[in-house]
Amino acid sequence: METAALIVVLVILLALFFDFTNGFHDTANAMATPIATGALKPRTAVLLAAVLNLVGAFLSTEVSKTISGGIVREDQIGHGILPSLIFAGLIGAITWNMLTWLLGLPSSSSHALFGGLIGATLVGVGLSGIDFGVVLSKVVLPALIAPVTAGIIAFAVTKIAYAITRRYDEKPDGRDGFRWGQIFTSSLVALAHGTNDAQKTMGVITLALITVGWQSGAHHEPQLWVIIACALTIALGTYLGGWRIIRTLGKGLTDVKPAQGFSAETSTAATILASSALGFALSTTQVASGSVIGSGLGRRGSTVRWRTAGRIALGWILTLPAAGGVGALAAVLVVWLGGWGVFIDAVLAVILIMAMFLRSRRNAVTAHNAFSEVAASGHAVEVPDAPPPTPRQRRVQRARKAEKRAAREEGR
């Protein structure tokens, strides 16, 4: 029992570290577009996001229950090995999170967590340890549907925003006012991120507590100290800022204009908040990326650069199996060596994480240079500097030309 308790403590610490990486990895979800459009300064943006992540973590626990009492069938797994498997799964999630952070790739921290847990459980227990019905309904289907839905909403909102602000008399269109609106909409996204993503760590810790009898398995509601710890940790990670990913999402996807940013954030916040209420463990990154692409397509004359969009989609697709593979490898050591396997996993994880962190220092991306250049990924949506005229604008132009011709004829 003492060994199991020690492993649970390690799981809690590792889960909180994952929560921290989730914060700095996903800061871009809320704040990339308002920084890109100049609505908020970088440091102000991440501070605001951190505070709202903290608040959002207290709003709901439905996603936490999906993690702690849905994906993994704890009743099918011996409580002696389950904490070790959770530990192995967390190593898979954190390793993938750190790698994609190093590469500046906006992958899904949520799916890294799911993949790590599923991979470790499959090695340690087999297919019986996973509730694939819950995985399909609460993870896979939302992952496919949510980004597309968010993109469609963002596309429609962008079209409406440009339509209602379009001017035909060559006067200012007033679209810069959307920068002020972005402060509100980006705040909603940060709030939604805290509501959805912090709960995933709460669910992992709750599951670990249940396995050693520190919490009753009759309910899966996270304890208050778990909520507070996860909220503070994700807020701290958010404040430190994932500048590499901010640069890719804010400038690498599309040249974001204020009206687009407002539309993308409105769509992202609405999609995530609705899904959190239903217990869907969404990827905030996927939803935000879908919204940014949809808002880019909402501008006249835009085209998709499929190579960049494909690169980002590839990161989404690889996340579950890649994190699952690392989690499975970590679980092999746990199954073979027991407590020593946990120790070896921990040492290897520290070495890998430190190596990636030191590698990142060679080409550091900070608040000062996050937008100094377009990310290597280029633009997923290409928009011409001068969008083609609308049908009404063409009619107005023809009418003006006719008036000028008539005036010249009268002058003769």
From TrEMBL:
<feature type="transmembrane region" description="Helical">
    <location>
        <begin position="80"/>
        <end position="99"/>
    </location>
</feature>
<keyword id="KW-0592">Phosphate transport</keyword>
<feature type="transmembrane region" description="Helical">
    <location>
        <begin position="312"/>
        <end position="334"/>
    </location>
</feature>
<feature type="compositionally biased region" description="Basic residues">
    <location>
        <begin position="392"/>
        <end position="403"/>
    </location>
</feature>
<feature type="transmembrane region" description="Helical">
    <location>
        <begin position="340"/>
        <end position="358"/>
    </location>
</feature>
<feature type="transmembrane region" description="Helical">
    <location>
        <begin position="111"/>
        <end position="136"/>
    </location>
</feature>
<comment type="similarity">
    <text>Belongs to the inorganic phosphate transporter (PiT) (TC 2.A.20) family.</text>
</comment>
<dbReference type="InterPro" id="IPR001204">
    <property type="entry name" value="Phos_transporter"/>
</dbReference>
<keyword id="KW-1133">Transmembrane helix</keyword>
<feature type="region of interest" description="Disordered">
    <location>
        <begin position="381"/>
        <end position="412"/>
    </location>
</feature>
<protein>
    <recommendedName>
        <fullName>Phosphate transporter</fullName>
    </recommendedName>
</protein>
<keyword id="KW-0813">Transport</keyword>
<keyword id="KW-0812">Transmembrane</keyword>
<keyword id="KW-0472">Membrane</keyword>
<feature type="transmembrane region" description="Helical">
    <location>
        <begin position="143"/>
        <end position="165"/>
    </location>
</feature>
<feature type="transmembrane region" description="Helical">
    <location>
        <begin position="224"/>
        <end position="243"/>
    </location>
</feature>
<feature type="transmembrane region" description="Helical">
    <location>
        <begin position="42"/>
        <end position="59"/>
    </location>
</feature>
<dbReference type="Pfam" id="PF01384">
    <property type="entry name" value="PHO4"/>
</dbReference>
